[in-house]
Amino acid sequence: MSKFKKKTKADTNIPTSALPDIIFMLLFFFMVTTVLREQEILVEQKIPQATQLQKIQKKTLISYLYVGKPKNTSLYGSEPRIQANDVLINTSDIVLWVNQEKDNLSEAERDQIWISLKADRDVKMGPISDIQFELREADARKLMYASVGRVENN
Amino acid sequence: MGKRGRMSQEVNAGSMADIAFLLLIFFLVTTTIASDKGIMNILPPKQDPNQPPPEVELNERNIFNILINLNDDLLVEGEFRNSTDGLSDEIKRFVLNFGNPDEDAVALFNSLPPSLRGMAEQSPESSDHPMSGGAVISIKTNRGTSYETYLEVLDEVKKAYFEIYGERVGLTGEEYRALTGQSAAEKELMDRGKENIPMAISIAEPDKIGS
């Protein structure tokens, strides 16, 4: 019996010295992939689902417009608003905003700008079509309706 | 050196894993893996107010009408329905109808794989040919239509086209959609897929009634 006990004692010691290394590796992975949100989202964002998603390869070309009901309804009302960068803007300011975003790009890339429209699923088509109209005015015609993937049930 | 010296030389690394775990969990929770994915759409160029939009003569049979009202009900080719199920198959059949093909369209038809050729019903009430000016999908919404339903319909239309494109080059719609066009081979596949079958999706100005 005593012989048996001795043997198990030697075997139960799992070497854990490599554990911190593994954890650190994971940690670094997440630190590198994390994009800390540089701006606060002031509107509600329940991104709609879709199946036919595509990806834009060059992320620097993307500018984001957030559309949805303001989170702070006492301050901004309950109608859907547009957020660009970190302020709420009106539909009429979109042209100006697009031109500012275009100025941030290099000369050659200016007409390749993509607008990613992150709209809440409860927004109606009225404000969306107003935004589309303004984007056409601003000649930023590449629009992406941001959406999250849905698993097809068939 | 004695036993004591050796003891003090070792740094206590046992809690290192705990600290790392704590940090790891922090980053796990705060991470939102940025997904820049979505449905792409190219808007039409802006209209010149002095110049009326060019009148394009299109036969009614060449337009696949999808109307969405403010209750998110659909009217597809004059037929009422309340879900988008099966819409993409109908669009596929509409686009590949080849009801009245001209010479170029016949050449296009002959270049298609048999699986797509089999979809051509050649019905005189459906589209003439899938080339430009032949088959147009028109989506018209109301200002009160929800964005979600609109996107659902657009999703179905895109699906139909991606499946056609994919099948032309021997891929599934899924695989075709994942092509990035960054390598020459992928670009060639993409061009071959959509050659002569443009994604003709017309998104009309929404109605103002009832909003």
TrEMBL record, chain A:
A Gene Ontology biological process term: protein transport
Main localization, broad class: membrane
Subcellular location: Cell membrane
Pfam families tied to this protein: ExbD
Cross-referenced InterPro entries: ExbD
Transmembrane parts of this sequence: 12-36
Swiss-Prot/TrEMBL keywords: Cell membrane, Membrane, Protein transport, Transmembrane, Transmembrane helix, Transport
CC per GO annotation: plasma membrane
Record's bilayer topology term: Single-pass membrane protein; Single-pass type II membrane protein
Protein family according to the UniProt entry: Belongs to the ExbD/TolR family.
Protein known as: Biopolymer transport protein ExbD
Organism: Cyclobacterium lianum
UniProtKB/TrEMBL annotation, chain B:
Lipid bilayer topology: Single-pass membrane protein; Single-pass type II membrane protein
Domain of life: Bacteria
Coiled-coil region: none
Keyword list, A-Z: Cell membrane, Membrane, Protein transport, Transmembrane, Transmembrane helix, Transport
Xref: InterPro entries: ExbD (IPR003400)
One GO-annotated biological process of the protein: protein transport
Pfam hit, one: ExbD
Location relative to the cell: Cell membrane
A GO CC term assigned to this protein in UniProt: plasma membrane
GO molecular function, one term: transmembrane transporter activity
Membership in a protein family: Belongs to the ExbD/TolR family.
Name the record gives this protein: Biopolymer transport protein ExbD
